[in-house]
Amino acid sequence: MLSISCTFIGICLFILGSSGNGLCILVFLRKKFRSRIITPYFIILLFADSIYLLFRLIKLLYYSQTLFKLHTNIEESCSKTFLARLYQHVTQTWPQPFVPLVQSETYMRFSLVLMSIMSIQRTKFITRSIKLLVLPTTFKDTHKYKWTFLLILSAFFIAYTFEFAGLTLFCSKSNNRNITYDWFIYMSKNMENATHILTNKMSNQPHELKCVEYAIHGLQQNQTLFIEQNPICTQDKLIDILSHYFDQHEKPIVNLIQKIIFFQTEHRISRNEIRRKYHFHECLFPQEPNFFHRYYDFMYSRIFGLNRHTLLLGKNYYS
Where is the chain membrane-spanning (predicted)? Predict the structure, then answer.
């Protein structure tokens, strides 16, 4: 029942959100505007905007358990709708080529590149019309649409290539065990009120919960992890448990990581950056975790490299 309601709400939001684009397309298809040189560009941009809205709504349903604090049965969540399950299948089957298509930066770059091309083409056309003493209001010149659709495809290819390179070239092979271990020690010593976020995830795993609680108690009471000769669990086992849970891209874990990083550095990190930096392991060139995190700022620099932080989007876009 909940999945049907989520689907209905998603359809209604898509209709409301894309209705304005539909009206604009109808206006551009009128006889007065149909032969304008700018018409194909604006129609494509309106379609691209609607397509991104559709992907955004599907992602909203798929990540509903991560984004929102829903007190519902996981078997009846919005992420179980047909479109959300289809999205999950496609992203897991073809993650590298598909994921850039659902990112907003792809469509922003596409819009910027396409508008630049349109401006150049229109300037060239007006200049040519002036030289031939033909008013640009008479759009009967067969040359005005030459290469238009090829230019549109080229603009999308450029935007897709930038996003593809930024999202799928580099990542860590697995969870960084050293960082996870440091997070746990810092949390246990300095964030006692936040430890329940981690332990609540282990409520149905008594052995793992006992191991983690033992380590937390040792850090809080004695400032050390293992003080007995035969502790409840070894350090390697503890790190294995922590690596497993800290590698889950779920709302409680994401919030916990955000809190730890903020307490450590006073820097607020977004959910998307947490996923890219710590939870994403499917890329073309996976790196060793320590190497990836050591050179992460260089790989995803705003100034250098083909990635989603290039200056094409502006310096303060992610601030």
Answer: 6-29, 41-62, 147-170
| CB 315 within 8 Å of CB 302 | yes
Its pTM stands at: 0.63
Positive or negative torsion for Cα 22, 25, 31, 32: positive
In degrees and rounded to multiples of 5, residue 172 shows phi and psi of -90, 145
